[in-house]
Amino acid sequence: MTSKLTKPELPAGFAYFPNLISFQKGLDLYEHLTGELNWQQPSIQVFGKFHPIPRLQSFVADEGVHYAYSNHTLDNQSWTQPLAVMRNKLQGHYNQSFNALLLNWYRDGHDTMGWHSDDEAELGVDPLIISISLGAARKFKIKHKTTGQQWELMLEHGSCLVMSGHSQQLFQHSLPKQSKVKGGRINLTFRSIVK
Ligand SMILES: O=C(O)CCC(=O)C(=O)O
Ligand SMILES: [Fe+2]
């Protein structure tokens, strides 16, 4: 059963902070990202057939940092000024350096992300991942890998979801389809990639 949960009730390793970014700053950043970044729609291989992923992606990282995602590598872009500012703030707050940023653009409610854990070897053990949402609010689901217990929350414009500890080891997460959602959403995940 899926239960509607607020911040204190999320499983260990997940924490939700609404309004990290003000409404207007969030809109400005959304405009910046859609206009300035190079967005791609890579194809991934499922049972031998190639399918374009149901969303657009962009990857920003320090020079020499690469992230192999479902058997393909995304083109590396350098930090734009607003993204560099945001990274600096997060690094100061969390006392950790983030050398990579994966961005996903869900053009409307038909774009999705399937169940997965961000547990690639290059993220290291128990990674700290900071996930920032802009644009249309979307449902985010969390599922325990062995018990199957599920949680659901809304990721709102300007919010921050922190994933840490055993969150990737014990749980999967997904962004389900919501056909009624007409607006776009951009999600930014700040990551540390071990070279
Ligand atoms: O769009 C989201 O909120 C989820 C993104 C995500 O899970 C990922 O980039 O690994
Ligand atoms: Fe993820």
Automatic annotation (TrEMBL):
Domain (Fe2OG dioxygenase) ranges: 97-194
Alphabetical GO biological process terms: DNA alkylation repair
Sequence positions that bind substrate: F47, G48, K49, Y67, A68, Y69, D119
A Pfam family annotated for this UniProt entry: 2OG-FeII_Oxy_2
Binding site for 2-oxoglutarate: N104, Y106, H116, H173, R185, T189, R191
Alphabetical UniProt keywords: Dioxygenase, DNA damage, DNA repair, Iron, Magnesium, Metal-binding, Oxidoreductase
Keyword DNA damage annotated: yes
Cofactors (names): Fe(2+)
GO molecular function, one term: broad specificity oxidative DNA demethylase activity
Protein name as annotated: Alkylated DNA repair protein
Organism placement in taxonomy: Bacteria, Pseudomonadati, Pseudomonadota, Gammaproteobacteria, Alteromonadales
